[in-house]
Amino acid sequence: MRHQSFLIAIDGLGAVGKTTVGRIVARRLGCRFVDTGEIYRALTWLALHRGIDTGDELSLSKLASEARLEITSTAGSEQRSVTIDGFDVTAEIYSAKVEAEVSNVSKVVGVRKSLVPRQRSMAQEGRLVMAGRDIGTVVLPHAPLKVFLVASAEERARRRHREQGVSTNMAYGEILAELKRRDAIDSTRDTSPTIPADDAIIVDTEGLTPEMVADRIIDLAKEAC
Question: For residue 194, which of 24, 56, 137, 186 is within the disulfide window of CB 3.0 to 4.6 Å?
Fold first, then answer.
């Protein structure tokens, strides 16, 4: 590996496999893994817990600046915990309520201004794989390797339905509609839209297993990092 700073940025739209693939890559390369989506989900959970309207940008920005947030992960391990203001929300952040509101929270300029510096500080702590929606473009623009994962909305909806449909009682059509709604918000927002960095490598995950996608990223890392 040529770079002293071993950073891999993995971006993409919802349910494309960023988290699953990122965890595999980090485990196999002995790195820590951070899914920045969990940071925004945690803040969304806290806003809902406190009864804050997710359309109230001023209150959300204030909450983001004050919230005590910690993601604990170990290099080479897929185990992690997400804590915000003393609440362990590792499981709760994937609830249907959080899923429905997280895009509204994450698009707020004041929220991102508070949370992006925290994400950057995590990259100062050693070898890291970071996944999200603006890692290569905003959070870690100097990462030696930037990967942007893609798959059709239909394929992504099928994956999410397999993973969460039974537990949430959501039909495939509902999941597809929700993904397309969130895609529109995330890819067109004024601040940090979810688009590939100019030097990102596009990896089409359609029809591939997470392990196969991870193999591709690890091969790229051997060349770039």
Answer: 186
